[in-house]
Amino acid sequence: MRSSRGFTLVELLVALVVASLLLAIAVPSYNQFTTRARVSAAIGDIGSLSLAIEQYRLRNNDQIPASLEELGVEVPLDPWGRSYEYLNIPSAEGKGAVRKDRNLNPLNTDFDLYSRGKDGATASPLTAKQSYDDILRANNGAFMGLGEDY
């Protein structure tokens, strides 16, 4: 008679520990990869929307739209499923909503366009922790990237 031999408890525990270690390494790497991919997608969207706003400006006597919907193009959601934030600076009531750099100078003189990032929170100055993960346009389009990198 042949006896069937299974795994011992020690072998099963070793396999479980190895699998847990592999997951502990893989999950954070995967999360970093997906975050970088989403940031890159948001930068691409902001660049495309900025170009559409510039084309609108050329067609409309140097006026920029009051909202993104006026562009006449489909406005995508950001990679986290939220709307992009847009502010026409010349027509803004007061300057409280204008995005500001670390020295509290406005990031742009024409319009602000940004995603609230992974946490969905934001604040006007980039010194606020809620703004670190925002993906934004600054220097009138010369910079597009994370708030913490500006």
Can you characterise this structure?
This protein is an alpha+beta fold. It has one domain: Glycoprotein, Type 4 Pilin (2-Layer Sandwich). The protein has one helix and four strands, in the order αββββ. The protein has one helix spanning 9-59, and strands at residues 85-88, 111-115, 135-138, 143-146. Strand 3 (135-138) and strand 4 form a beta hairpin. The longest helix is centred in the N-terminal third of the chain and has 51 residues, at 9-59.
Structural class: alpha+beta
CATH T-level topology: Glycoprotein, Type 4 Pilin
Please give the order of strands in the largest beta sheet. Answer: 1-2-3-4
User: What is the tally of beta strands?
Assistant: 4
**Spatial gap, N to C terminus:** 74 Å
Structural domains: how many:
1
User: How big a fraction of the residues is strand?
Assistant: 5-15%
Flag low-confidence runs: none
Mind summarizing the main beta sheet? 4 strands, antiparallel
CATH architecture: 2-Layer Sandwich
Contiguous helical run count: 1
CATH class: Alpha Beta
CATH H-tier superfamily: Glycoprotein, Type 4 Pilin
Order of helices and strands: HEEEE
Shape estimate:
elongated
CA radius of gyration is 23 Å
Question: What is the arithmetic mean of pLDDT?
Answer: 92
In short:
With 150 residues, this protein is α+β, with helices and mostly antiparallel strands.
Question: What secondary-structure arrangement, pairings included, does this model have?
Answer:
Elements: H1 9-59, E1 85-88, E2 111-115, E3 135-138, E4 143-146
Antiparallel strand pairs: 1-2, 2-3, 3-4
